[in-house]
Amino acid sequence: MAENAPEKRKAILIGTKVDIIRDIRMGMKNVDAAKKYSLSNSTVALTNLSGGEKQRKRVREATYKELEDALLKWFLDARQKNIPISGLVLLKIAGDLAFFLRHENFKPRGRWLQFFKEHHGIVYRAVVGEAAAVNEDAGNDWLSADISAVL
């Protein structure tokens, strides 16, 4: 691999940013701080200029947190009962929950579902084993049950 190949972008821990700012305010030069923390000069300079702003660039909060919490609770309850759940079922339940929670602007879409799954670490896998053998009628009854119990 070439020596001049660009390094991958890495997030700097908040504690490291605080240390950089402290070192520079105590008289350390940006170049020396960059060497100490194995960062580029521009990264250290920007960290110093921002003054350790309390913003995160890669973590987004949920727009409909109440809805996501309710959907996650529903999902975990369904998983505990070994009921197979597809993405379409999650979108349908999310739409129903949004209606009950009066989120008129919420439209369940695939992109939102992808973000929800990534945020909560949900991965679709086949539920196997005798414990996972669920009567299909019982699953349908459970899916059509009153959703207000989740809220």
From TrEMBL:
GO terms for cellular component: nucleus. One of its GO terms (molecular function) is DNA binding. Residues 55-126 form the HTH CENPB-type domain. Keywords: DNA-binding. It comes from Rhipicephalus microplus. It is found in: Nucleus. This is HTH CENPB-type domain-containing protein. Its main location: nucleus. It holds the Pfam family HTH_Tnp_Tc5. InterPro entries: Homeodomain-like_sf, HTH_CenpB_DNA-bd_dom.
